[in-house]
Amino acid sequence: MEGILKRNSARSLTRLGFAFEDFCAKLFQELGYDVEREPSDAEGRDVDLIAFGPSDTFYIQVKYSSRSSDSLSRLRDWAARAAASMFPPGQHTGVLLVSSMLDPARKAWAAEEFGIRIWDRSELTQLSRQAGLEKELVALLGEESAPSRFKSPSGRRIASDNVVEVEVSELSAASQTQQKGESLIQRLRDIPPGRATATLYERLCQDIIAYLFGDHLLDARPQQRLEDNLNILDIVYRVDPSHPFWVTLTRDFRARVIVFECKNYSEPVTPLQVYTTERYMSTNALRPICFLMSRHSPHDHAELAAFGAMRESGKLLIFLSDHDISRMLMVRDAQLAEQRDTQAWIENDPTIILDQKIYDFIARCPR
To answer: CA 64, CA 67: separation in Å to the nearest integer?
Structure first.
């Protein structure tokens, strides 16, 4: 009996998925676009719709979800598949069109990370109003039930709406009572880069790490001097062996501690800082992982130096700029609006962004 119910549920979801795709095609037609369904060509595109317009053409992946809102984990997988279908990248305006509501912070991160636009129920509602199809959308998906912590969409017209351009300061992903991530972002902005404020920056980094990962990175040891009395690790943590991301990371790299380096430089990190940091990372001492926090994205040559450390000695050095940290803080605010220790809590953890950073680094590491 249970198997029959599952099969019937799966068929129902499939029917709704097809109906949602039909609606999306009709929506763009009503908005004045010529729509091609299920295109397939020699360029490798594998999208659900192509909407040809006078000023822009959208290559659209449609995702129907039975949930009223969807998680960062699911969004990451959908966005990765959508971006892959836009091959060759950068030559099309790719759109992931989702039937559910997405938290703005999660949506903005995924859009930027994968280089596509992401439109959810909020954009669908706006476009449906323009096309005179709002009642049809409600009939298909039901009354809009966006969680109250989501801000109203920007209302920009379809031709110029690009979630990638949304500033972190515009993203309110949490309830009105939980905005610590936003306050940490403001503190980050208020500390100028430079040697004079290096200590303030390091203390703030420790507060940020505690807010993002404090449930599982424990026993912080700031300014930990090594036995040679020459090298100092900015902040060292031991790992609570209960979180799937940290368990996998420490297992794969044989690590007993996680190191965070804090570089309050006014310029991008260079190879010299990578070489200096890499000297006191140690695979033999079970200390091969370092997250290097800095104000800017690293210099291209610094990434090459980090690739060398990974390739030659198995040391993992991941760069986290102010921008990366701000994204994670907003996602953490959103996670804390979920019920703790549920599947939704796990699927919206900021470590998903760290995991994507590590995946991107290892995937690009030369032989």
So the answer is: 9
